[in-house]
Design brief:
Elements lengths: L2 H11 L3 E5 L16 H13 L5 E4 L1 H5 L2 H18 L4 E8 L3 H14 L4 E4 L5 H8 L5 E7 L5 H4 L3 E2 L2 E2 H9 L8 E5 L7 H7 L5 E4 L8 H8 L6 E5 L1 H4 L7 H21 L2
Parallel strand pairs: 1-2, 1-10, 2-3, 3-4, 4-5, 5-8, 8-9, 9-10
Antiparallel strand pairs: 6-7
Helix pairs in contact: 2-4, 2-12, 5-6
The structure holds the ligand O=c1ccn([C@@H]2O[C@H](COP(=O)(O)O)[C@@H](O)[C@H]2O)c(=O)[nH]1.
Pathway: Pyrimidine metabolism; UMP biosynthesis via de novo pathway; UMP from orotate: step 2/2
InterPro entries: Aldolase_TIM, OMPdecase_type-2, OMPdeCOase_dom, RibuloseP-bd_barrel
Catalytic activity: orotidine 5'-phosphate + H(+) = UMP + CO2
């Protein structure tokens, strides 16, 4: 999906919500554990219930890899289900990859070609040649970690390198990479006030903003500093939505949580 198509979906659905599929066997309703593929059953129920309130889904790959081959199969079934039933929804593999060029190319093929995700998160630490193999793919986005939502972001990302904080240096440098129009950036909702400065460097690019919900980030603050005339935001919430209830009507409750966020987003869009 192109950035323009994603923007169209956002205005059509009055939502820039991304639902995180961080599916954990220890947190899903216990009655699902007797199913053949509990992870897929849970994801399917969440997707069916929440799809009208969001524009994107973001499985965090760690939750699937932790289950070995079974987890990878559940991931594949989930992405195939999204493609066949809800082809207008944008998909993000939150995998935080990046390696020497020829290895990055294999990661890119895994997520873009084999699994068919629209985007993948990538760590910038290994530099240009570790990221450009992802950027080569047409109509696919590479979402570069810029300023993450966790406390440890202050260990390195805000260190000064010359005149700039490291995260700003990452953003500025990456703008010169081949096919940089395919870049999006991760900025944590817990660091919303930083978005004002970030928007001075990248006024147009989409930002993936995790941290609303369980991590305490504020949607209002994110919009205050980060929204553009074309929105330019995908705000993710995972645990607060998908684990809102562990009873038999968990999907309905998740839908209500997603709808509440979507309503807030619709109000923000009206201000544009
Ligand atoms: O800076 C980052 C980058 C990625 N994440 C991921 O987003 C979700 C957040 O989940 P919540 O349950 O809504 O807190 C999760 O997959 C993280 O690994 C992030 O939180 N911060």
């Amino acid at each position: 999906m192109t950035s323009q198509e994603l923007t169209e979906q956002i205005f059509k659905k009055k939502s820039f919500l991304c639902v995180g599929l961080d599916t954990d066997l220890e947190r899903i309703p216990t009655y699902l554990l007797s199913e053949k593929d509990p992870v897929f059953s849970f994801n399917k129920a969440i997707i069916d219930a929440t799809h009208e309130y969001c524009v994107a889904y973001k499985p965090n790959i760690a939750f699937y890899e932790a289950l070995g081959v079974d987890g990878w199969k559940s991931l594949k079934k989930t992405i195939n289900y999204l493609h066949s039933e809800y082809p207008d929804l944008y998909t993000i593999a939150d995998a935080k990859r990046g390696d020497i060029g020829n290895t990055s190319r294999m990661y890119a093929k895994a997520f873009f070609e084999d699994l068919g995700f629209d985007s993948v998160t990538v760590a910038p630490y290994m530099g240009k040649d570790s990221v450009e193999p992802f950027l080569e793919f047409t109509n696919k986005h590479t979402i570069l970690l810029a300023l993450t939502s966790n406390e440890g972001a202050f260990d390195f990302q805000t260190l000064k390198t010359g005149d700039d904080d490291l995260y700003k240096k990452v953003i500025k440098t990456s703008k010169d990479w081949q096919n940089s129009e395919n870049l999006m950036y991760v900025v944590g909702a817990t660091k919303a006030e930083y978005l004002a400065d970030i928007r001075k460097i990248i006024p147009e690019n989409f930002l993936l903003v995790p941290g609303v919900g369980a991590q305490g980030g504020s949607l209002e603050e994110v919009c205050k500093y980060g929204i553009t005339k074309n929105v330019g935001l995908l705000v993710n919430s995972s645990r607060k939505i998908i684990y809102a209830s562990d009873s038999s009507n968990f999907a309905e409750i998740a839908a209500a949580k997603a709808e509440a966020i979507q309503n807030q987003m619709a109000q923000e869009l009206e201000k544009l």
